[in-house]
Each structure stands twice: as C-alpha cells, then as structure tokens.
Description:
Helix content: 10-25%
Number of helices: 12
Structural class: alpha+beta
Number of strands: 34
Radius of gyration: 28 Å
Distance between the termini: 64 Å
Strand content: 25-35%
Amino acid sequence: MKKIISIFLLFSIKIMMANVSLPYIFSDNMVLQRNAEIPIWGFASPKEKITIHFQKQTKTTVADENGNWRVLLNKEKEGGPFILKINGNNKIIFKNILIGDVWLCSGQSNMEWNLASADGYKDELNQKEFPLIRHVKIQKKINSLPQQNTSETHWDIANKSTIGDFSAVSYFFAKKMYHERKVPIGIINSSWGGTVIETWIPKTAFEKSDYFKEMIAKMPQVNIETLEQKNIESKTNFIENLLHSKISDFSSQNFLSNDYDDSSLVDLYVPKAWEEQGYEGLDGIAWIRKTIELTDEDIKNNVTLYLGKIDDEDNTYFNGKEIGSMKQWSDDRIYNIPKDLLKKGKNVIVVRIKDNGSGGGLWSNPEEIKLVTPQRNISLSGNWKFAVEKIYTSINQNEFPSLIYNAMIHPIESTKVSGILWYQGESNESRAYEYNKSFPLLINSWREKFGKTTPFYFVQLATYDTPGNSNDGCNWAELREAQTNALKLENTGMVVTTDIGNPKDIHPRNKKTVGERLTNLALKNNLKSPVFNDFSIEGNKIIITFNTKDVIISKDGKPLTGFEISGTDQKFYPAKAEIKDNKVIVTSSDVPNPVAARYGWKGDDSENNLFTEKGLPISPFRTDNFKTITKDKKFQINLK
C-alpha cells in the first residue's frame, strides 16, 4: 500500500510541474535576427532546468521562482533552415527557422491593410514565390496591465496561399529588402486599424513625461475586467445625463415610426462625430432621425439620399423602410429611394449607427449630406434627433492609454529586430499638435525596449480630402508637421506620400510605393524626400531652402503649385513660386511685405508638383509658428 501511495504522489507531482513553453512569437518558420545576440525566453516550473540547442550552441538556464527563464544565444550569420530545441520537463522543437533581418511593423489601418486588398496583388501571385520572406500577425488584444504573451499566432512562409493576408506595406518592404540584401526577411505585423497613438505607448513612459504624467495619474490601477465594469457604469451614467433619458427605455419601433413624437429627444449636429459633441467614449449603437417636408414636385420620381461617410456601420431607413446599409466607415453612403416610399408633406429619415470604436457618427462635409429630388437639393446638415440603444460593455482599444502596448508590444519586446516601421496618425488628427509630444514619446519608449539606436522609419499622412486650409486651419496638415518634427530624433526617416494617396479614400491602395520608399530609408541609399530647412525674407520675396543636395524640380514642368504667403495679418494668399539655385522663391502681389510661407497646407495635396529629380515629393511645410487649431486639444482619460 505504501508503494502504491508513493507512486501516486510522484505521478501527482509530475502532473503539477508546468511544461516548458515559449511565447507565441516563437513558432516553426520564424526568422531570428542575424549578427546579434538572440534572446530566447519562456515559462516553466520554478527552478526547472532548461537547455536550449541551436546550431552548434548549447545554453542552459534555470527558471526563476515565478517560472520565467531567458537565455541569449551567440550571434549567428544569415542562413537556414535550422532547428531550435528546448528541453526541460518536456521537449519543444521549432523547425524551418531562418536567420536574417527582422522588422517590427506597426500602426493603424494603412499598415494593417492586407495585400489581397492592395493594388498589384494579382501580379504578386504570378511572380516567383519568396520562401525566405516570413510574416507573423500579432492578433488584436488589449489589457490594462503588461502581459507576458500575445494571443496565439504563428509565422507564415510567403507563398501564393499566404501573402494575401500579409500587411501590404510590410510585404513590399520585405520583398525589396530581400532583393537588395539577399538575406531572409521576417516581418512582425503588430497593427490595428483606427487606433490612436496613446494606446501604443507604455504607461511607464507617460509617467516619466512632464507633459503626460498628470493625465496618466488618472489611469485606474486595476485589471481589465474590473476596469470594464467601472467603465460601463460610469459611461452609462454619463451618457444618460446627456440624453436626459434612460438607455433601457429606447424603442427602435417607436424611433422608426413617422408618428413618434421626438420633441423630447436631444439634438445631434450632422455631420460631426458625436465624440466632438460631448459624447466622449461612446461606442455602441445609436440612432439619429430627421423629419423633412416634400412637395408634389419632389415625389414625382425616385430620389437619392447622400449621407457621406458613417463611422462605422449603418442601417438607413426612409419612412420606416430600410433603404440600405454599409459596414465600411470610410465609404460614402448613397442610397436610392423609390418613388413609392415618398409622401407629400412629412417624411422621416432614420439612421441606425453601429460604432465599434474611435469616432462615431456621420463625418463628411456638410454639403455632402443631402436629399436630391428631381426638383432640388435638400440640405440635411444641421440638428437631428439623437438616441442611444446600447453602450458596448467591452473597453474600446482607444479609451485608455497603453491598452494595446500591454497586450501586443510588451510580450514581444525582448525580440531582437533590425528596425521598426510605423504607419499611423489618421486617428490622431484632431490632436495633431499634441502628436509633437506623443510621437517622440512612443519612439523613445520603444527604443528603450528594442534598443536605443533602433532605426525607426515612418509614413507621413497621405493625400486625403479632409476639411481645412491655411486660413481656416487644417488638422491633417498639422499632423503631417508633427510627423516631420519627429525627424529631429536620430536614426529616423519619413516617407512622404502626397503623390500616391487617393483624395477620396483614406486607405490608398498603392502600398507598393510606400513599402519600397520605406526600404530606401532602411538601405540608406539617399532616396528620401527632402523637408523644409530654412527661409529668409528679401523685400517682397520669401526664399526657402531644403535639407537636400538633390536637384529640385517641377514634376510636370508647369508652374509650382501649393504655395501660399502671408503678411503680419496672418492671412494667406496663393503665391507664385519659382526654383532658383535649388531654392524656392515665393511672392504674391497681394502680400508686398511677407512674413510667412506655406506649402501643401491642406489634406488633398495631390496637385503639389515640387519634387526632386529622383521622383520624390517634397514634404508639406510652413515657415511660421502661428497658433494652430489643434493646439489646445489633449488626450484625456474619461472615467466619468
């Protein structure tokens, strides 16, 4: 009996011992960084002995009291395929490993955008496969506390069946890098569409920042589940106070009825994100409603409803009948309404909006919101009646700082990389001036983890038809300027994309040029866009210089476009610009005594034609320091 008990106890102890495991960033087909010590780490039982075999190397370590362990393999040259073996209480083998260059690619939707949805995808399917290019997608996840591991994932080999899911920008970057360097290229794709930069920055970095430390002090010190509960309770109370009604009392049947008395409902201005109208942090399902009057002439034929862009999804109704729905937040809603739905007199338009995160509601220009009848255009911009059906209980990835960093960057920050590629900023355009603080903070904080001299290359906002100009102010232009200012940090580089965007699409499909321009930065081959350097004033002229020895030209041979000039009144006028001695001389008969010049100070810069002779656009800029419209906009933690 004693022998049986002893065997049972030994078996129980064995079961209780944790198996050796590694984070999901390790898998078959992975790429490890060449010419650098290679960190290997994972989890095991406390004090368990771990042995790692790789190539001719054997390393041994012991897990600490918490079961964590880490070793550094000696530097290896490029090559493969190799096998990595880890022995503890159990054995793990990773196969088909390559040694090469590893790049971390991060940001929002334009980095996440997959190759299957980009220009040139079919051409890539017809080309030679590239088995020495590998890609791993870090799955979307948030947490209020730093995590040891990501969600489950794996490395993929580039071939016809896999590349469609690769980040398009990083794929084209990797392809050119492979051709140029002739070494394996590994891409770690940790990106998430619609995200703000603050969610990618570690809490410790905010705490060390004089600018952000007051903000971060408001961050609750709790786990994600407790944070979600506190958040939904406070958010519900906050929203209901604004609505002057209970969310639980909402009835979609009543809201859709033409006979519904909506006079007690609050107003919401359309088009404008509801976060900008006091409803901060509202993610969920909301409804808007507008009553219009139609005449006999209006209802003789079908009409067309234009609602512009809606963030994120909509179901649109006319007189109680659904007339259309879409799910893409950047697509224009244009719905045809058949004649038999029209009525003389009172007609009701209702839109059900599902907002999954970030901004919510209609967000195009006012003139785009209209009903077009055979006789006239009826403007629909202005106040609509507003109600909320549901607030999402889960925390949005943008609601609090550091949430994505904790779950998607912190678990992989021991990985050795060649450099970092970053494409983000669209979601921060309303706080563009603050980006001058947050972007360098992200770069420096990531370098503390991945290496203080780690190259950091990023993409400036592309051409896009957003509101604003020099005289009214322009968020998009201010964000571009903040990105340009980050070049003051060493070992950074910026890709200018004003020439390859799409004014009508915030997700331009030309990702190949973006990826290849990033490659040029990594190769340090002097193929980069110049930026503004300095200016001087001589009489009625402003003379502008750039930080380049490349010859600057008018790309199309026509007079330079996009330049403006102002006097002390800070009012800008279109200006004549000429190239002389590789400088640009700007003048205007409207401004005899100029003090400032600007170039490309708007969202849609597709007509700008100041380039280098190597075909690269010169970045938009301003010579002045006049106050910008986003200067007082700040990121805040909104626990109401």
